[in-house]
Amino acid sequence: MESRKARIVEIEPVTRVEGHGKVTVHLDEHNNVSEARLHIVEFRGFERFIRGRLLWEVPVIVQRLCGICPVSHHIAAAKAMDMIVGVDQLTPTAEKMRRLMHYGQIMQSNVLHFFHLSSPDLLFGFDAAAKKRNIFEVIKQFPDLAKQGVLMRKYGQEVILHTAGKKIHGTGAIPGGINKNLSLKERDALLVDVDLMMSWAQNAVQVAKNYTLDHLPLVEQFANFKSSHMSLVREDGALDLYHGNLRAVDAAGNIIFDQMDYRDFNDYLMEEVRPWSYMKFPFIKSRGNVDGWYRVGPLARMNTVSFIDTPLANQEFEAFRRFGQGKPVSMTLGYHWARMIEVLHCVEKIKELLHDPDLQGTDLRLKGERREEGIAVIEAPRGSLFHHYKVDENDQVTYCNLIVSTTHNNTAMNRAVTDVAKKYLSGQKTITEKMLNHIEVAVRAYDPCLSCATHALGQMPLVVEVLDAEGKIVDRGSQFAEIETPGLT
In terms of domains, do 159 and 133 share one? Predict the structure, then answer.
């Protein structure tokens, strides 16, 4: 009788995500999935090489982490540096310009993900041929929908251009404020299409909602697991993507902590490392590293906030909450519906701000009493983004720690990968590309930015293994680079 051996199936690279990663699926001798893991196979040591740079450079440098969400890092770094230069409250013009920039970023990023990266799976099916699952086929078969996706993203990029000075890697946010206001010409250019964007955003919500309701049996069994959720909320509990305090709820919707000052995040959150990933694994201290993991991002925000302060998005939010019967929605594919609700909210906010005369103000920047430490949190498209810096008397950065949205979702993504792998791969004699795409769909739902998330804590090993012809390790050597992150274990 033929004896079987345990084996590993790899998905490398994971496609239609930002950055480079792979999934390993571990099968036992009976072809049942014993474990599945999401691995990040690139390392970008921004937390290390930002040290020694001047505080004024940081908001421009750190956005080089990513070409998809540079604005998020730009604003988070500037916000942390506000604290260091002693500015606790920006001028109205500065704060509203930053908010406008931020809404443009979230709009364009969420649209990019939904229409360009995820829609091929949703429109053609997870089992569609690989050559079918791409944006070019979407353009062929759904030209109107594809056009909306392209032009909505373009509009978000135009908002960024007029607030940051460039569509990618701009300079608009500086420590203590901004370096430009919005001219009347720029305002009028953005007003031309804002109502069209509103209509298309409402349509996008319906597309995502209808997919969920029309495919409910699939959605309910696909990586559907209970978890805690965390996001910023305003003092009254409203959705606030730029500023607020942290709220976390458990799987039943019970408050874990509320209105937590994010500057005290080290008292509530911890991170750990595991030898098989460059990504860290955050957890809520009070719940421990086994049960304390949580989700962030659009789904988490819909599960944590009390309401949305723009009318159209709030109507859709209430429909989303009714769908969950007032409890947190735990379905991984629910991210898409939540993401489009946020796009609608951003368009409403953009229109509101464009009619605000403060955007043409000339009081752009403030200074205060110098501090040595700055901490900022914003809600990036993918979830809560933490920037923490320390700066010496020479204005040089001495410490940097970034906890990005994808890092917060690390455990959840690994659970999603394992759940889907067990449902679709266990017991299968032949594993096809279509089966493996189900696992990629689970990863893509979180819209991970893998290049943003690749940092290290403690010792980062470079390991060399020599294997013989049968795959056995015959020699092994390692070299370690020390990565210092005080206060975390």
Answer: yes
How many Cβ atoms sit within 10 Å of the Cβ of residue 132? 16
Residues 425 and 284 in one domain: no
Least confident span in 1-5, 78-82, 178-182, 243-247: 1-5
Is the whole model's pTM more than 0.85, yes or no?
yes
Q: Which of residues 39 and 355 earns the better pLDDT score?
A: 355
Instruction: Write the pLDDT tens digit of every residue in 211-243.
Output: 999 999 999 999 999 999 999 999 999 999 999
User: For residue 479, what are the CA distances in angstroms to 272, 277, 457, 476, 482?
Assistant: 21, 16, 15, 11, 10
- Asked if the structure places residue 391 within a domain, the reply is yes
| Residue 463, strand partner residues | 478
Of 354, 383, 410, the one marking the end of a domain is 410
Q: What is the DSSP letter of 180?
A: -
**Calpha distance 430→337 (Å, rounded):** 33
Alpha helices in 117-258 (DSSP H): 119-124, 135-141, 143-164, 184-191, 194-214, 216-221
360 lies in the same domain as 377: yes
- The residue out of 361, 384, 410 marking a domain boundary is 410
Q: For the residues 69-90, what does the mean pLDDT come to?
A: 96
Same domain, 225 and 259: yes
CATH number of the domain at 209, please: 1.10.645.10
Check whether residue 315 and residue 451 sit in a common domain: no
Kindly state the percentage of the chain with pLDDT values over 90.
78
Where do runs of H (alpha helix) occur along 171-327? 184-191, 194-214, 216-221, 288-291, 298-304, 311-323
3-class state of residue 120 by DSSP: helix
The length of the chain in residues reads 489
Domain limits for position 429: 7-42+414-483
d(CA 169, CA 66): 9
Q: Which of residues 57 and 13 earns the better pLDDT score?
A: 57
Give domain status of residue 1, yes or no: no
**In whole angstroms, what separates CA 428 from the centre of its chain?**
33
Co-location of 236 and 330 in the same domain: yes
pLDDT of 465 higher than 60:
no
Q: Are residues 230 and 147 in the same domain?
A: yes
- 489 or 150: which carries more pLDDT confidence? 150
Nearest to 117 by CA among 336, 423, 419: 336
Give the list of residues 6+ apart from residue 154 with CB closer than 8 angstroms, or none: 108
Q: How many domains does the chain have?
A: 2
The residues that bridge with 260 in the sheet, in sequence order, are: 246
Please indicate, yes or no, whether residues 177 and 267 belong to a single structural domain of this protein: yes
How does pLDDT run across 408-446, given as a tens digit for each residue?
999 999 999 999 999 999 998 889 999 999 999 999 999
- 359 phi, psi to nearest 5 deg: -65, -20
Q: Closest by alpha carbon to 24, among 457, 397, 417?
A: 417
For 267, the 3-state DSSP assignment is helix
